[in-house]
Amino acid sequence: MQARRATQENDRMRYFDIAEMRVDEESARTLGFKKVFNIGGDIGKFPGSDGKSIAFMSGKESFARAARSPNVLAIVADALPVQKKDLELMRAEGKLLILPAWPLMEMAGMQLVKGTAQLRNAFRIAKQMRVKSSVATMAKASEHLLSSMQLIETACMLCGSEEEAKEMVQRLGVFE
Amino acid sequence: MIFRAKRRYILVRSSAPINAITIQYRLGDSLLSFMGAEEYANAMPKVVKQMDDNTFIMRVNRGSERKLVLALSFIKNLGSGPLGFYTLRTSGSIAALLRKSGMG
């Protein structure tokens, strides 16, 4: 029993999230994350950052330039559907694809059904193209934040497997 | 022979203060619209204890706790402004839940 609890506690401390707002360490631990990275603080936004950075598919800078930049570790799929040629480039450059969760939280009814289908499709194509993917809240306000338990369930809704969902949430540790 | 339903208790925190009546009725309606009648009937979620203005404990039938956790992620408004619900822990009893979360 104690070994199982220790394993659960270790698992909890390997989960990460990314948000567009600052989340202090205590709040991050309460939510079940080892750290919640802040865009603009812990992680830079491409272009305009020399350290570890993140790019957005909807960004004005060319996707190819972002994908080839050594500082960019991940690209956020905020402009769906994702293109296979973009994913091929990401695979070649070893970039991580991040599926943002907060747009889903704003939807309801049929719009939510469509949004979920789009993200599921994006995950499926990424898996087919052998691109590693992850899920992050990309929260802009405190009501968009999720606990690690909720983020894993959201990832499970997209990928269908609990093990894969946990791996997806752990992959954000690349920014550590 | 007595058949007792097996339950799970979930510790939930909200991003803004919320009162017990709002939780009980409006949250129930929101969960029903997200989960659907069948899932809601399987889960039968209920708020059993309010710890403080932001924290409360929900009870759900065992096997449906994951659905409830997912449903709470998608509820962002109960009519009184933007709101977020964070599920912190689950346990088989209220005492164990409070002990694990350091509130007992």
Tag the structure with descriptive keywords.
heterodimer, A: TIM Barrel, two-stranded parallel ribbon, globular, B: 104 residues, alpha+beta, Alpha-Beta Plaits, four-stranded antiparallel sheet, 4 helices, 4 strands
Structure commentary:
The complex is a heterodimer of chains A (176) and B (104). In chain A, helix 2 links the parallel strand 1 (16-19) and strand 2. Chain A has eight helices and seven strands; from the N terminus they run H-E-H-E-E-E-H-E-H-E-H-H-E-H-H. Chain A has a single domain (2-175), classed as TIM Barrel. In chain A, the strands form two sheets. In chain A, strands 3-4-5-6-7 form a five-stranded parallel beta sheet. In chain A, helix 7 crosses helix 8 (162-170). With 176 residues, chain A is an alpha/beta fold. A four-stranded antiparallel beta sheet of chain B has the order 2-3-1-4, sandwiched between helices. Helix content of chain B is 38%, strand content 26%. Chain B starts with 6 loop residues before the first strand and ends with a helix. Chain B has a single domain (7-99), classed as 2-Layer Sandwich (Alpha-Beta Plaits), CATH 3.30.70.3250. In chain B, helix 1 (20-35) packs across helix 2. The longest helix of chain B has 16 residues, at 20-35. Chain B has 104 residues and is of the alpha+beta class. Chain B is globular and about 40 Å long. The chains are: A alpha/beta (176), B alpha+beta (104). Chains A and B meet through helix 7 of A and helix 3 and strand 4 of B.
